[in-house]
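Sharing a chain and its predicted structure for anyone who wants a worked example. Both blocks are below, sequence first, tokens second.
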Amino acid sequence: MELHIGIDDTDSIEGMCTTYVGAVLKDELSRFSTVIESRLVRLNPNIEFKTRGNASVSLGIKTSRPEKVKSLVLETVEEYAVFEDRNTNPGVVFLEGNVPQEFKSIYKRALHEVVPIKDAEKTALEYGAEVHKFKNGRGIVGAIAAIGSDLNANDHTYEIIAYRHRKNWGTERKVDKDSVVQMDKKTFPLTFNNVDYKYARMLITPHSPCPVLFGIRGENPDVLNQAYSMVSPGEPVERNMLYITNQGTDAHLEEVNSIADVSPYSSVILQGTVAGEPKTITGSHVIFSLSDGQGTIDCAAYEPTGDFRWIVRELKPYDEVKVSGGVKSDTINLEKMEVLKLADISREENPLCPSCNARMESAGKHQGFRCKRCKTDADAKVKTHIERKLENKIYQVTPNAMRHLSKPLVRY
């Protein structure tokens, strides 16, 4: 029989990782079942109660021993989930056979909004799924979403993850940086976001006390296996796992027609006109107001976005842009920005002398301008066009500040 297993919310900011639980299960289940597909699904990045990357996992298997599978899954979750953290509320869902459209709808909702636990549970039970809630069971939302994520039918990427031995969890990761740079140079753009060269930072290693040693993202399994072999870890790897994912796809972004359609916790694409000069506020954050003709909304490039802030700082009133980002506190936190049309900016200056090309001086109130040396004159100031530093193209935050779901420019 075909069985879908969804798991979410086993981790904590203090440690663990739901992808690790998925990796352990894949290895154990492979002893007596066939694992067809392993999915790593990132959900709404704006959810306040998420841990780090808001990831859930699902495994699609074929088995003749479904009850043994279920027992093993639940025992593994109970062994590894961080139950002592009050914010960890695991959920496990088992679904036999075909995935209904309603599970796919839960996935779409979980990318863009806060899905109530009762909505997810009702959907699961209506289609005969087996639901297991630990504590308040909020993880069943992500579990159902992972099962419903039809990644093969939509844009998708892959990630290969190396995991650490338990004795090393929480200690400094040891991965040779030079090997990562060489891997990036040989496999880019079929792998991406491995290194942020601007800030000389290696991006494949997380900074939390989770079991992940490093993870490489890319376009296909063959390239990822090749890239994996190029990286030199300075500590033994316990196991590795290849997931199909929605990372780097912009799956969380949805285009809205007006500011009135922007909802809290959503991630939007919105076109409008810059309504005022960008301002740099305390913390070196840059904020500007965007108008859609009916209202305005603030757009912010925060300090972690690096040089992207100074790109935003170059905007002028009446520039037309398309912004993308998550919505919090009635502000769009920018992830990328497309410049559609730049306003024509000019400034008034004293005219140039036609003989010596120097700027003329004022001849007095209402008396025009003159060049004392050449005895030339002019009636009024002239407008000089100001060249803009921006171009009509897409700008994005530094790789160091990109969300898991954000689509890097190299994938456009």
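Comments welcome. The chain has four domains: 2-153, 157-245, 254-344+389-411, 346-385.
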